[in-house]
Write a structure and sequence with these properties.
With about 550 residues, this protein is of the alpha+beta class. It is built from twelve helices and 19 strands. A six-stranded mixed beta sheet has the order 10-11-12-9-3-13.
Length: about 550
Amino acid sequence: QIHPKKGGRIQQVKPLDTYDIMEKVIVSLLLISIASTASAFTPRQSCGSVTRQTFLSSSSPNKPSDFDFEYVPPNPEISPDEGSFSSPLSSVFPSDTPAGMRGEAVRSAIRSGRCVGWDLSNEASLSPGGVLKIHGKGTRAFLNNKLTQSFSAETASSSYQEACLLDPKGRVVDRLRVAMVDDETAYVLTSPGHTSEDLLKRLDPFVFPLDEITLENVQDTFLMTLASVQREHVQKVLVEQFLPKDKSFPFPTRPDEAVTWTYNSDISVVVLPSTGLPPVAAVGYTMIFHGNGAKDLISKEWARLIGDDNPDGPIGIGGLEYETLRIEAGLPAYGSEIGSKEAKASPLELHWENTINLEKGCYLGQEGIASIIKNPRGPPRTLYSVVFEDSTNIWETQSRGDKSGIENLTHPPKVGQTLYALGSNEELLVGTLTSVAEAAGTGDPTIVGLAMVRRADSIRKKMDEIGIEIFREPQDIFDVTESSGMIEPPPLDPLDGLEIVVEGTFTVGKLSMVPSRRFRMGKNMFDIDVVVEDFEGDRD
């Protein structure tokens, strides 16, 4: 492996004998090979243009080569995962719509204020299957004893909290969104992929007669979410295009407030002041419609709202687009980062500190949380974003049919693959990929993913021993905004910008802080010039 920013010096070799290694390097140089001896490339010109990348050979990282070659892969426009990407998730766009076009349409709708919306009930792997209703005199005490947040008597009767249900070792079972609509009734939303029926089965053994509560899986419900860069955009769409005109509908005024509406004589609505995504990605509302006939009636109204006959309406997205949006936003998912035998993480590893009340009494998994807090080294792992740019990878699909005779091992990353520090000869283990999005699904020529990464101090110590540095361009550290002239502070994370290579491949990516840590409060990751005029609590 040749590092693109170190003048062509070999940074990684595969376990071949010395003669095989030299033969590979020499043949690759002479035949202007790709991927397996990826060199210092000039960035791709633009998406859709002819890809031209320059191979520079030099014995010094600062000295230009005496000879330059340009390599144009035979299939520059082919997607990295052409023919190999498969997902159980569906898209609302026509099947022949390119991923990049879908991604840009979604993000443009978020930036412009047109809004995007989703209903995941038809996605088998994401559908919540309903809503868990907890009712009775002991509702607050039950929630307070089981979840990481406080649901004490001092909490407002109409309140909203995001809290974690933990296992006995303090690892996340699920992040729950809890709406108290009165002192004795709460509606609990599970994460996409975790059904309310499963949650009921998990909690039911903890319910005793003295708790004075009942658990009910309410299935005649319809859940819809609308999101934008400003909450007022969502309110405008709902008032002008969706809600009945003969009555008023108040919206939550605080980040910890849930409100209830009467939609008609049979259907009630619980409005949550959250989309479920981090506020840095989008703000808005999730609405729980429940009551006799709620699913049938509201699903028709939803179809009308996002349908072709409403050209000014929000852009509806399917599970495929939602999944890419989730990963890009840095949101852990049930079955990927949490909730399964393979996915076991503390909320502190996932940057969910705001779901934990450190002053409350006992709850499930409290000892596990306390042990991490007391550890001066912090959590054993941390969630990071990983970005694989087309500009630093010539994918195997793009090089098929060339004359080099060299196997290109630059393949799209997959969930479960191990990440190593680039330049460590796969000796410095960094972490493991837990989520990977569709190539170009963000609208940019990249593949984004999430990874659980080992402690930074261990990795930095090994980097110092090997002599690996994190290369940062000035624009990666300082960002002067036109509106204020202020200089953004440098990244506080010691691994932000670390270049990594995927095990057994020549696929190169870069670690990045998740957006909620990377962007200043009040900023939107899709438009940094926007100042999000939102609840103060959403900026934490």
